[in-house]
Amino acid sequence: MKPTLKQKTMADFFDALGHPRRQMIFQILKETGPKGLPFHTLLKRSGLKDSTLSFHLRKLDQGRLLKRKIKGRETWLSLDLRTFFMFVEPARDQVKIRA
Fold first, then answer.
1. Which domains does the chain have, with CATH numbers?
2. Helix-strand-coil percent breakdown of the chain, rounded to 5?
3. Which residues of 34-65 are buried (b: 16+ CB within 10 A; e: fewer)?
4. For labeling, which of 37, 42, 45, 66 is most exposed (least CB within 10 Å)?
C-alpha cells in the first residue's frame, strides 16, 4: 500500500515545520503579515547565511507554506496560511487527549 497524495502533502507540511530554523522563519513571516518581505530583509532578520535560508525556504515551499512574488529585482516572501489551516485543524481533531 502506498501513501495517498493527501498523506504525502501532510507529511511535507509537518516536515516543513519540523525544524527550529524553519519555525523561526515562519514566525518572522507571520509577524510581517500578508504583505511579506523581501528575501534580503528576511536574510538580515533571520541571521542565517544565504544558502541556509534558501534551503529552509525550499522546505517551507515543499510544505506549501510559502508565497513568492517578484517585485522588480526582489523576491518577496509571505506565508500561505491556507495550507496551515487545512492541516492543523484536522490534525487537532484526530488527536484526543484524555486527562
1. 5-91 (1.10.10.10)
2. 60, 15, 25
3. eebbbbeebbeebebeeeebeebbebbbebbb
4. 45
